Amino acid sequence: MVGSKNKKLQLILLYTIAIIFLIIMVYPYLYMVLNSLAPWDQVDRKIIPTGITLKSYIWLLHGGEDVTPRPWLRAFANSIIVTVSSTFLMMVTALLVAYALSKIVFKGSRTINNIIMFEMFYPSIILLIPTFLLVRKLGLYDTYWGMIIPKSVSLWAIFMYTNFFKAIPNELIEAAKIDGANEIKILFKIVLPMSKSITTVIFLFLFMERWVELLWDMLVVHDQNLLTLNVMLAQMFGPYGAYPGPMYAASVILTMPILILFIIFSKNFKEGIQFVLK
Amino acid sequence: MKKGQEKLGWLFASPYLVYSLIFFVIPLFGALFLSFTNWNLISPQYENVGFLNFIKAVKSPGVKAAFFVTYKFMIIFVPMVLIGSLVISLIINSLPRFKSFFSVGYFLPYLASGVATSVVVKGILSYNSALNVWLRNTWHLNIDWLGSQILAPLIIAVMISWKFMGYYSLILTSGLESISGEVYEAAAIDGATGWIKFFKITLPLLYPAMFTVTILAVGLVFGIFTEPYVLTGGGPGFSTNTWQIEIYNQAFSKLNAGYGSAIAIIDSVVTFVTIIIVRKLLEIWGKSYGWE
User: Fold this and answer.
1) Rounded Cα–Cα distance for residues B280 and B274 (Å)
2) What would the pLDDT profile of B43-87 be if each residue is shown by its tens digit?
């Protein structure tokens, strides 16, 4: 009897610690949402605001008397355009290249694999300035393409898909070939549906990383109408210093799409993440 | 058939090959070339200045700061995130129910944009915030959090730890799950409990996962940009001036593209050497546990 009571106490303690950690991890999100809805004289002042108002969100769209409104909605749309196209390209290129490296027998595949490994571990910071100059020279400065094309291939995604595809039995692909399917059809009709959970994980990671990119998007775009939401928010730290409420509103708008995507896909994510972590 | 495969392989791999040529090979040589010039991003003329940029960089306070700030971050951040994620994964591993609910919750910070987190941190630490008012009224403490050379880097380290703890704990949890219950049972028969069990069994068997997490965390330190860029601008007094901040400022604020490239090359060499040293140290640690 004493033992089971002790065990119960241990469990309660364990869950208490687990919940305290959970609160620490989620608190900044909660703080963000609460303050975006708080009356302006309470923003950052009260732990739990006494009222709720949409003033911060409305102000964000219309601007104040002395502050010209920024194109926040446009920035949100820009973020979507850039992130969706970039992620889509990264997924498609990764699928094609990984399929070649794992399921097509050709002479260069080992060399290409080695180059990918080399590039993955190469500090990419060295490439920043010359890539910027190159993109400017190609006439992509201040365009969507300037943000999309340099981020259209993900070495990490290729690497992950290659490892995953290697585990898919070759007999399956041979059988499909005998039935007359071509490689593209095999890739998208057989291999891809078998890779659902890893595809979810790769998609979520790529989407998230692209969505919160700051440095590159900031360098390559200057036009206010082309800025992504993340960049616009970063640029508002000084000018909106006296308006924290709208800053929180913009932060909520920036954060929510990722959270929602993650929650929608969380079931597949849990299955796929185990592979990625190995 | 064979010949077709050969062509097809190159065809499928071509998006990567073309991309790599344009966005890896050309910029790589571009960086080397630029680092020996005094080009300023705008003027059509520039000169070859030999090793002048490198000499100037090594002597400059900004680069020296970046060098030491990175190691300072490493000393604060790496143990912080390792211990934090280890604690979280131990919690997750010992929960009998709601395991996935908690691990999803702990993972959420990884999804945050550093910019949005910075908005929150700036708010929590602002002069009239609930926290600071409480500190002033109750303890007569008036702390200028982000204006302090000691606190500013600490705050950024905490922010980044917060973001990555849940993610790293997933890696550690899958490591913990691979340790079989039999090992613990055998140890229990030998009378091992609590801390002894942790240091003699869990930690040694968790070594491969710890290795991965440590290397990831060390590599991450060299890429810190967003948080200091929006919160401190590298200050106060260079105390959060990371490599990326220094390169950004030199190349794009002061328009010294040649000089900035030289710093980036120095940064890459420092990163490379550091990672190799850390790997060697970790391997020595692993050998003490009997891992090869």
Assistant:
1) 10
2) 777 888 888 889 888 889 999 999 999 999 999 999 999 999 999
The DSSP element (H or E) to which B79 belongs, if any, is helix B61-94
Q: How far apart are CA B10 and CA A251, in angstroms?
A: 44
The answer, for B243 touching chain A at a CB cutoff of 8 Å, is: yes
ipTM: 0.86
Model pLDDT, residue B274: 93
B112/A29 touch (CB, cutoff 8 Å), yes or no: yes
Whether chain B has a CB inside 8 Å of the CB on A22: the answer is yes
The answer to whether B39 contacts chain A (CB < 8 Å) is: no
Instruction: Report how far residue A265's alpha carbon sits from residue A131's, in angstroms, rounded to the nearest whole number.
Output: 34
Q: Among candidates B158, B260, B51, B189, which has minimal Cα distance to A129?
A: B260
CATH of region B53-288, choose from 1.10.720.60, 1.10.760.10, 3.40.630.90, 1.10.3720.10:
1.10.3720.10
CB atoms within 10 A of CB A117: 12
Substitution target in A11, A44, A114, A182 with the highest count of B β-carbons within 10 Å is A44
Chain A residues closer than 8 Å to B70 by CB: none
Cβ contacts of B264 within 8 Å, gap of 6 or more:
A125, A126, A128, A129, B31, B35, B247
